[in-house]
Amino acid sequence: MTDERSRKLMKILVERQRHELAELENQTGLTRRQLEYTLEKINAILLETYQQTIVLENNRITVSLEMKEQLLAVLVDDSYADEYVMNGGERGNYLFLLLFYFVDDYFSINHFMTEFGVGKTTILTDLKNLNALLEKEDIAIVYSRKEGYRLVGNEFDIRYHLMKMLIWDSTEQNTMFIYDYFIEKNQLPSVEQTKEAIAPYLVEYQLSFVENRLKEFIYTLIFLEKRLGLKVKVGAEKFRLPAVIAMKEYQFATRILALTDNHDDFSALYLGAWILGLSVGNPDSTTKDYEIIMELVKRIIMRFEALSGIRFNHQELVINQLYSHLRPAYYRLYFKLPIVNPLHSKIKKEYSELFNIVEEALKPIASLFEHAIPEEEIAFLTMHFASLSASLKEAKQPQKVALIVCPNGIGSSSIVYTELKTLFPELSFIGPMETNGIEHLADSYDLIFSTVPNIRLFYTKKPVYVVSPIMNTAEKYRLISDVYSQLGNLGFQLPSVKSILEVVEKHATILNLGALEKELYDSLIPKNENPESEVTEPVLYEITNPDLIQLGVTARDWEEVIRVAGAPLLKQGHITRGYIDTIVENTKLEGPYMVIAKQIALPHARPVDGVKKLGISITSLSYPIEFGSKENDPVKYIFCLAATANNRHLNAMAELVELLDDQAFFELLDTSQEPQVVYQYLMSKSQ
Questions:
Q1: pTM score, two decimals?
Q2: Which residue of 136, 254, 488, 658 is most buried, as measured by CB atoms within 10 A?
């Protein structure tokens, strides 16, 4: 008899050969007692089927190759589904699926008790918990003797909850077990049948989905089928866009709906809008919305470059990558489709400076929608900009070949690729690619890195390492340790942080165990070869000084403003004279790209154009000057940036972005006559 805990633990156990009990507690969120009880459940299954058990010795579990194959067999064996015991959360999801799919059926407490094999009190508790969750989305579960239990609320809100639930379980929980069980038990069209049915139309209309988005689309399509025919009155207007009818996504929707004899025009509009929010944008396809989306992409890139001080060398590559994400993102935001980003918190923490800059860069386009851009969407774009901003050296003399499998799209793929190249410079990498792409590869790789647990990969008989696209220090350490211990002599064997701490505790008093542990992890993980990259990123006041601050300056035109603003940097040896000339020439060619907000300019060029060392000058004008920016002229405050190639200025730029809304700072620039006062203000903001 299996349950959610035992399946989750089995999936974790097959990922690695050795597991510390303390690590398993962190990964599963279980207490020591709960973990041991779950192991007993798994062992009962293994003992009955294979006459073997998992051995816990010295708080460690070692999974042999034979044991790994047995666990995989249990995970894929359908017979265990019949004995599966759902927890409260799973019963809640299943209850919602019953009420959602069987919209015309009558459900009573007795029906639910029979369905789940639990008592009345348990069912009432599950209904109460589900109702509390749905109330947050203006949905309610109501009961009447005539109609039984049913869902009440705006139909789009009800569909939204289904989509969000599906996406969350697919991405964050990485399990579709409950949905597969529902489909099989109620004899719905299977995922494979649906996939085969729509495959020819995907080819015909040249639609492309990221692997996980296609999976989410198929599952949702299966569950939506019965509700698509419902007449919807409230909220339907936003889907009746003439532009959608002209899209191939709409034509695709009409064809696949016809497979189920659904010829309702609004159903096709709704489905077409939803597909627009899922499919990958193709910059080489001349769609009706191409010019609009491309203009937004270029505006975002220009604003990001202006705010961050980064100038991308390969504009076409940057544009194409962002277009592929922004087109579906635009429709997700416009139609208010669910956005689930399980890495949101991690991205915001690990790339906090970049996140703040991207958030500011998106502000001008936020006005296109009726609501703020969710942080989950900002985090997705942050991943793209993080990967595009990274500059890593090529590995020398690679000894082994690693395959990267990522079903989550370009942003996640690019991030994990750059992370792995830094951690394992001696490996040569293939990918990133989706799971199905492996079938077309020859047996030319030695190991696999995957961003999601995927049972199919373990059958390749290659070492498989499950990694998060955004890894913290401890996760990087554990990954390096796993790879080196399994592959053998690739360079070095990491010492155990736990062992080091035990030695330190014998001979010294540890004042802050957590801080010491983190610093040990940091010191043991391989860094980028560039020594400057190991230095902490400076804050704003650390890349300027009173001599770089000019107050009450006068100038005749924008060109003189740029030259005056750059003069202190030139004098202190931060830049060459050619750097200022390049900014002027770029402005003549590209327009006032550096005007980033009302009255504010951030002139900068590429590091190769003449930067000697990192720095920023601050100049305020007595009288504003026109730069040619329709939205933000005239300019009164100029921050001239000299950024080095390693992007160490991003922390300072994130701080500058925060200052854009600090009225007191700009009043100080207007009224103060002493650069030292301004400098002290910057220092106080960084404390």
A1: 0.68
A2: 254
